[in-house]
Structures are given as C-alpha cells and as structure tokens.
Amino acid sequence: MTIVGIFGVGYWIYYSGWETVHNNPDILRIRNSKIGSGVSVGVPNEDSIFRIVDMSVFNGFRTGFDFSNALKVYGLPDNKGEKNGIQFLEYWRPNGRVQIVRQETTSGISWHLYAYPNAMRYDQFFVADIASRIKPSKETLVDLSTKKTSLLMCAFIGASGFSVGFFIERDRGRVLRGGRTRHS
Question: For residue 160, what pLDDT band results from cuts at 50, 70 and 90?
C-alpha cells in the first residue's frame, strides 16, 4: 500500500500540470516543474524544434555531424579534448562557442551539439510561449522532447547566461536535420 502511494504521488508530480498551447501547433504541451525550477515542453516532432528556438546559437553547426564532417566543413577546432571517454571539438565564434561531443554509451554512440552564446538572451532564443515561463531570478532547466524520445534539447539558464544542448544518437539511425533557424 505504501509503495502504491509513493508511486501515485510520483506519477502526479511528474505528469500533472501539463497545459495545451492552442496558438502554437509546434508546442503540444508545456508545464512548469513542481519540484525545483524548470520548464518541460512537449513537441509533436523533431522538426518543431527548429520553429520554436533560434538555431543561430549553433553558428551554422548542424546535428548529425561527426568529427570528420566538422573538420571538412569548419576546419581545425580552437580546442579539443577527451575526458572520461567523452571526446569533443570546440569552435569559438564571434557570438559564442560551439562543441561537438562524442560519447560512447551502452546503447551506442551519441553525438551532442552544445552552444554557449555570448550575447543572446534566453528570451531571444525561445518563442514567447516558452520564454514567458522562465523565471530569470532562478537557475532554470528547460527540456524539449517528443512522445517518442526522452529528450531532444535542453537549455540551462543561469545568472551568467545560458547554454543549450542538442542531442542525437546517430549510430542508431536517428539523424535530425539542422542548420535552419526559427521563423520570426
């Protein structure tokens, strides 16, 4: 009985509070976290991401790139390294840094694309339906996902700015298109 009660409370905390955004077909549901400071956004498909965030933070880098693609297109990185089996190439651009990260997991190889913008604010990165839910006085984690995937993108907003991670598991056949920006 106690285990069922604990499960029920956990289920309520995780799944309650979802709201539908009627004026934006690229956002299926959205909610503020009941624990901590966070915003969760459900999108209908991966393409929706390109319409609700400003992809220019990635400086033209695209998902699906591995190290050889990055070297061909962008040349030598400004920094590279490896730590705990995670390899990365880092490129410094006028409006921020971009990292291409390779990580071996038990289910295959994951490729991640991270951006660390210099001057862009979170409310310029997200559409208003998402940005309006972020409390700038608190550190906030925003996650975007579809029903099929656990996580596509997350952004961490803090006092010193924000960073964005875009996730892909290329070796498992799921490659997202990239290089587009949000429609104004």
Answer: confident
